[in-house]
Amino acid sequence: MKYCIVWVLAANLMVPAEASERTPFEQAREIKSGATVSVTLTNGQTLKGRLGAIATTEFILDPLKPGSGPGQDLLFQDVSKIRERGVWKRKVGLTIACIVFFPLLVLFGWS
Do 83 and 22 meet the contact criterion of CB atoms below 8 Å apart? Predict the structure, then answer.
């Protein structure tokens, strides 16, 4: 059982640093193009859409429904945070896998 706890703690350490520690440009570069994102502007407004093309000073926020309108050009200087939506599902999946898989390894042996 203690091996399981060690593996769960180790898996949580592999999670990247919080988004607030990186610039919006760095946050955007780590997200795959076309992914659904939530963008918080410096004025507090939150926008949702799909991440489009990224340049050094700006990026395009495409609408959630493809073809429903043109994308919005946003400057990185006007953005406080860019966050990919649905990431928590992957983290929960990894945690469940650790809780189920590693005790089975310990119970039935490593080989």
Answer: no
Handedness of CA 67, 23, 15, 44 (dihedral sign): negative
Packed helices 2-13 and 87-108: angle between N→C axes, nearest 10 degrees: 150
pTM of the model: 0.60
75: phi then psi, degrees, rounded to nearest 5:
-85, 140
State the CATH number of the domain containing residue 57. 2.30.30.100
Around 103, how many Cα atoms within 13 Å sit in the side-chain half-sphere?
Answer: 7
The ranges of the chain with pLDDT < 50 are 19-20
Give the range of the structural domain holding residue 9, as residue numbers without chain letter: 2-108
Domain count for the chain, please give it.
1
